[in-house]
Amino acid sequence: MSTPPAPFDLLLLPAWLVPVEPAGVVLQGHGIGIRDGLIAWIGPRDEGLRHPCAQVIELPGMLLAPGLINAHGHAAMTLFRGLADDLPLMTWLQEHIWPAEGRWVDEAFVRDGTDLAIAEQLKGGITCFSDMYFYPKVAAERVHDSGMRAQICVPVLDFPVPGARNIDEALHVGIELFSDLAHHSRIKVAFGPHAPYTVSDENLERVRVIADELDAMIQMHVHETAFEVEQSLEQHQERPLARLQRLGLLGPRLQTVHMTQISEDDLALLVESNTSVVHCPESNLKLASGFCPVERLWQAGVNVAIGTDGAASNNDLDLLGETRTAALLAKAVAGSATALDAHRALRMATLNGARALGIQAETGSLEPGKAADMVAFDLSGLNQQPVYDPVSQLIYTCSRDCVRHVWVAGKPLLEDGRLTRMDEQVLRDTAMAWGRRIAGQDQ
Predict the structure, then answer these.
(1) 132 and 73 Cβ atoms separated by less than 8 Å
(2) Best CA proximity match to 403, nearest among 150, 70, 64, 118
(3) Omega cis (within 30) before 196
(4) Least confident of 100-104, 200-204, 367-371, 385-389
(5) Which H or E run includes 156?
(6) Mean pLDDT of 388-409
(7) Does residue 422 register a pLDDT over 60?
(8) CA distances from 136 to 120, 176, 214, 392 (A)
């Protein structure tokens, strides 16, 4: 007697299924079967309906895609949203953000701000995000409770920051947290040296040695502005990327964020080292930091992911909107209407993000054996009609309001637009209370 097939826990039947890998594929009349949090099967819907299944969900008019991956941000900075707008980067940082962080950031701030960020991201179809902010242990606890997937980057700077009196303490926190979460199924711990201008050669080498020993990822703001590059040439007689190469940091474990200033030598270093770039177009635009040449990077073979940056400089955590901006901006920067087409833009927001974070074997595309991290976008609205290419409609006409359902590891975290584990009214009230305190209205 043959063994009956193991039943699916969940069978989803969307109008369109976009696996992202293979590239450019759009499946119609197909379903996806989930078992034990993993994708067990993808095939024709009739075949799926004949398979034993605990739950079947029809998704008419919806496109099912891998969950979006926000490859760079500062989650708790949601509580600084709109605090210091329309300013250049260094003025924004030195005169507004850093003083505000020194006064307000504590464990409670990070807890409440991270919760707000998690909720906003889930409602926007994001299933995984990278966070670089203070009190990383608190952020990791909030991610664990939420059911999301995340990379927690431990901030490393030469000067004292909230939660770390010096770099020795910051590195100790990072090593301990890495050990504690080494076997966590959804959380990875990385090191986050802030930027070349805030971390010395000596401390960058310390980060590299620790990351090498632990096989940990490193994320860093690099070549964010022309001023940063000019300053490095004056102080070190080399560009920041060349300095990182000299210190041994470039490689597949490094995620360079922003990269708006790229010379031919910079491009060669990125290609040779297999270093990833995380593109944050809206933050770059708002701070007038410059333009990352995405198409040039892509054509050279560099892995380019996408991030929102923090809500204090964006001012939202809307990765779908960010991806649309990235696609449009790439065309203008390259002077070509074919640059970063819709399918590649979606890949940048999913599988490329997973590759940058080193989790491409687990998530980033809909393939059997990978985690069931998925988002269902509703393309049945008036604004999406008619639908010729559902991926083009997703990138160019949809907003995050089109997100209907989100699953992480097969668990529903958003059902018909409603969070399943978080109370939106409580989150709203808490954020408003912080706003009143920071604005001085409660004094």
Answers:
(1) yes
(2) 64
(3) no
(4) 100-104
(5) strand 149-156
(6) 98
(7) yes
(8) 19, 11, 18, 37
For the chain, the distance separating the N- and C-terminal CA atoms, rounded to the nearest angstrom, is: 76
CB 304, CB 279: distance < 8 Å: yes
The mean pLDDT value for 147-171 works out to 96
Place of tokens 């310390």: 206
Angle (CA) 408 409 412, round 5°: 50
Residue 415, SS3?
strand
- Secondary structure (DSSP) of 2-18: PPPPPPBSEEEEEEEE-
Cα 366–Cα 345–Cα 150 angle in degrees, nearest 5: 55
Residue with tokens 């009739």: 46
Q: How many residues does the chain have?
A: 443
- Residue 178 scores a pLDDT above 50: yes
Other CB atoms within 10 A of residue 56 CB = 16
Tokens representing 344 are: 């590649």
Cα(191)–Cα(183) distance, rounded to whole angstroms? 17
pTM of the model: 0.97
Average pLDDT for residues 310-332, to the nearest whole number? 97
